[in-house]
């Protein structure tokens, strides 16, 4: 249930309510909006204490959360969540672009790409150190060595970092070096991994699985948020349908639907979504037009030599032209890049 407090309630009274919730063995989830402070009481049969909280002077009213995903719903928080990473705000007016190679391959290539995208105004460098691959014989990533390469690129360029974790232990390894921990599509319902990401507190980019419904994606986000980490970014990256002309079917319907159902930021991964280099830019522009808060795009100077996902990685010239076009579209929808 949601406890909505009266305007201007002093911190001392808020703390009394929070402590009361804890004594009842529930976890209080506090959301401070522009006008109201609300406290979510999430747990089995929490509604039986409704009358007790309604009798408290600081409480304005109490309502139930109808959605199965409680903390991620608009019922819990009406204002958009904006995740502020050292001035880079994901979920605000700016559409944040994350770009880089699919996988960290070498120090030289990573720094080459990082320096290039930095000049184009990109704020976040992506690169996989731990790679979940369909084939056990494919390149699996450089592990912590790859994370150290990313950290060196950050030191030299000032770019923020995002990389994927595949196990609970890797959550803490990635968080040690990176600003955002990515949970990939194959692990969207790996609940132990999600809970560990929630305990860590670093922002999490959660990718939609190839056969995951929007409701299931939000419930996966709920696993992270239930552990106290509310800094979750949802990512549409394509779903598997009967269509085989593209790698996946990029479900841009999901963007406006998610924006209505949840307060969390929504980004789009057109590289994986379509999997064909010449069409990645078109889908990136469509994502901006339909309301995405960010893009995550693969870029490689020599995609024919890439150890992972070369066919969908943009060449530097293509990415530069795309950034120019994206800014024009962003202006048309009252956003900036």
Kindly list the characteristics that best describe this protein.
single chain, TIM Barrel, four-stranded antiparallel sheet, 337 residues, alpha/beta, 14 strands, 11 helices, Alpha-Beta Plaits, 2 domains
Rg measurement, Å = 21 Å
Please give the number of β-strands: 14
The top level CATH class name of the largest domain: Alpha Beta
CATH topology of the largest domain: TIM Barrel
Characterize the largest beta sheet: strand count, sense, and whether it forms a barrel: 8 strands, parallel, barrel
Just name the CATH architecture of the largest domain.
Alpha-Beta Barrel
Which structural category fits the helices and strands? Answer: alpha/beta
Q: H/E order of the elements?
A: EHEEHEEEEHEHEHEHEHEHEHHEH
Question: Mean pLDDT, rounded to whole units?
Answer: 93
Poorly predicted residue ranges = none
- The number of helices is 11
Can you characterise this structure?
It is a single chain. By secondary structure, this protein is α/β, with parallel strands linked by helices. The protein has 2 domains: 2-63, Alpha-Beta Plaits; 83-332, Aldolase class I (TIM Barrel), CATH 3.20.20. Helix content is 36%, strand content 18%. It contains 11 helices and 14 strands. The protein has helices at 11-23, 50-54, 107-119, 144-157, 168-177, 191-200, 214-225, 254-261, 270-274, 277-289, 316-332, and strands at 2-5, 27-32, 37-42, 59-63, 83-85, 88-90, 96-100, 124-126, 160-164, 180-183, 204-207, 232-236, 266-268, 294-298. Helix 6 packs across helix 7 (214-225). The radius of gyration is 21 Å and the shape is elongated. The two termini are 38 Å apart. The mean pLDDT is 93.
């Amino acid at each position: 249930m949601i406890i909505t407090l009266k305007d201007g309630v002093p911190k001392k009274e808020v703390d009394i309510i929070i402590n009361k919730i804890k004594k009842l063995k529930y976890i209080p989830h506090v959301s401070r909006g522009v006008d109201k402070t609300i406290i979510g009481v999430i747990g089995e049969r929490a509604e039986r204490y409704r009358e007790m909280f309604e009798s408290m002077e600081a409480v304005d009213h109490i309502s139930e959360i109808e959605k199965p995903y409680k903390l991620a719903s608009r019922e819990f928080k009406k204002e958009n969540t904006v995740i502020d990473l050292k001035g880079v705000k994901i979920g605000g007016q700016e559409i944040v672009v994350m770009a880089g190679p699919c996988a960290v391959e070498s120090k030289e290539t990573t720094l080459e790409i990082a320096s290039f995208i930095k000049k184009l105004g990109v704020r976040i460098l992506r690169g996989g150190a731990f790679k979940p691959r369909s084939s056990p014989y494919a390149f699996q990533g450089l592990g912590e060595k790859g994370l150290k390469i990313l950290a060196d690129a950050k030191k030299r360029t000032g770019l923020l970092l995002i990389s994927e974790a595949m196990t609970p232990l890797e959550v803490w390894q990635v968080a040690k070096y990176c600003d955002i921990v990515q949970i990939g599509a194959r692990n969207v319902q790996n609940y132990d991994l999600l809970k560990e990401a929630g305990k860590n507190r670093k922002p999490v980019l959660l990718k939609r699985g190839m056969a995951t419904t929007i409701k299931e994606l939000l419930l996966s986000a709920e696993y992270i948020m239930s552990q106290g980490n509310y800094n979750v970014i949802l990512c549409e990256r394509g779903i598997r349908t009967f269509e085989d002309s593209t790698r996946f079917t990029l479900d841009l319907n999901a963007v406006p639907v998610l924006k209505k159902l949840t307060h969390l930021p929504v980004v789009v991964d057109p590289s994986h979504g379509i999997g064909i280099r010449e069409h990645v830019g078109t889908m990136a522009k469509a994502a901006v037009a339909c309301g995405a808060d960010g893009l995550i795009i693969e870029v490689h100077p020599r995609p024919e030599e890439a150890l992972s996902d070369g066919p969908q990685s943009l060449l530097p010239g293509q990415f530069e032209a795309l950034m120019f076009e994206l800014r024009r579209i962003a202006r048309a929808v009252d956003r900036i890049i």
